[in-house]
Design a protein that fits this description.
16% strand, globular, 145 residues, four-stranded mixed beta sheet, alpha+beta, Ribosomal Protein S5, domain 2
Length: 145
């Protein structure tokens, strides 16, 4: 038996670029035309997309989270929750663009609570789909001033 000193090939578990929202315009479209779901740890904005998969964008403001080290950690935590809840996301009838906004309480919450809250939001979306609500249509929303 010959042993090799080579490390095994690493399989990246990062979200691929096609599953991320990156441009400001994409975020603004979700905010303007999407539906908001609030939790204690995060706020989620959703807008239906016509793609074959869900996409995610993550924000953590200085006002809500604080220093850049904490903001970056909050964004990593939210991306991880999204990535690891792929099975639950596949249970939804439609595919969505998600914008997840971190709240101050996210940093102190344990892993189980973060996942439970995100799954609750997914359940709320699934219920809205079953009721036939057309919140996520992506059409231009008219606002009265």
């Amino acid at each position: 038996m010959v042993s090799s000193n080579q490390a095994p090939d690493k399989i990246s578990q990062a979200l691929p670029k096609q599953r991320r929202l990156r441009a400001r315009r994409e975020f603004q479209r979700v905010y303007a035309q999407g539906q908001r779901y609030d939790g204690r740890l995060l706020a989620a904005f959703l807008r239906r997309n016509e793609l074959a998969e869900h996409r995610v964008g993550v924000t953590a403001s200085t006002k809500a989270i604080g220093k850049s080290v904490d903001r970056n950690r909050a964004k990593r935590l939210l991306r991880e929750v999204f990535r690891r809840c792929a099975a639950e996301l596949m249970s939804l009838q439609q595919k969505y663009d998600w914008v997840l906004n971190a709240k101050r309480t996210l940093m102190a919450a344990d892993e189980e609570l973060r996942f439970r809250e995100f799954r609750n939001i997914i359940d709320q979306v699934a219920q809205a789909e079953r009721r036939g609500e057309d919140y996520f249509r992506g059409a231009t929303v008219e606002r009265e001033l």
